[in-house]
Amino acid sequence: MYIILGIIALLVIFLIGLYNNLIKLRVRTDEAWADIDVQLKRRYDLIPNLVETVKGYAGHEKETLSAVIEARAAATKMNIDVANVTPDQMAQFSQMQSGLSGALAKLMAVAESYPDLKANENFLELQREITDTENKIQAARRFYNGNVRDMNIAVQSFPANMFVHMFGFNTREFFELDENSEEREPVKVDFS
Predict the structure, then answer these.
(1) For residue 108, is it within any domain?
(2) Contact assessment for residue 54 and residue 117, using Cβ atoms and an 8 Å cutoff
(3) What is the Cα–Cα distance from 77 to 108, expressed in whole angstroms?
(4) What range does the domain containing 87 cover?
(5) Is residue 144 a contact partner of residue 36, using CB atoms and an 8 Å limit?
(6) Distance (Å, whole) CA 170 – CA 26
(7) N or C: which end of the chain has fewer CB within 10 A?
(8) Residue 91 lies in a domain
(9) What is the 3-state secondary structure (H, E, C) of 20-82?
(10) Does residue 191 fall inside a structural domain?
(11) Whole-angstrom Cα distance, residue 48 to residue 50?
């Protein structure tokens, strides 16, 4: 009788530990996604200021400016629930973010051809902030993907995989660049 109670007690202690570990991983993953969301919001807020600053100097670059504005609009429209995101939703979200990054890179390349703009304090500060934000987005994406990796390993590993569905846990999707992303391509600038 004591042996059976001891085994049941050990099983309960194991399940409590497993559950608490999974909760910790889920909270870390959600926090990491929130960090990405904060940085993306910062990027979205900086873009109109950058576009307006460049517009004053590079009025004939309407196509590039329009591409940035359209990419920002598309990227801000999509909201996803990271706990229930499908692979297709994450791919679409990644593609939108990649498109925005590519449009920003082209805008920065266009700005290089305007010496007065490059010397403008507002532009220089915005350029620094955009660069800083892009770096923070990359760091937040790496942090999120690391937490997703840990969560997925825990959810898929034995013996946890026997109990996770009972507790309502599942794997998460990584936030990766689209394979055909403009971010992976070098920026081409043609002034002919």
Answers:
(1) yes
(2) yes
(3) 24
(4) 2-184
(5) yes
(6) 10
(7) C
(8) yes
(9) HHHHHHHHHHHHHHHHHHHHHHHHHHHHHHHHHHHHHHCCCCHHHHHHHHHHHHHHHHCCCCC
(10) no
(11) 5
State the residue for tokens 């593609």.
95
**Per-residue model confidence as pLDDT tens for the chain (192 residues):** 899 999 999 999 999 999 999 999 999 999 999 999 999 999 999 888 888 877 776 665 677 778 888 888 888 888 888 888 888 888 888 888 888 888 888 888 777 777 776 667 777 888 888 889 999 999 999 999 999 999 999 999 998 899 888 888 999 999 987 655 554 444 443 433
161: which DSSP letter? Answer: G
Cα separation of 68 and 14, whole Å?
A: 52
Could you tell me the pTM of the whole model? 0.72
Q: How far is the CA of 115 from the CAs of 46, 57, 64, 105, 189, in angstroms?
A: 21, 10, 18, 18, 16
- Asked if residue 31 is part of any domain, the answer here is yes
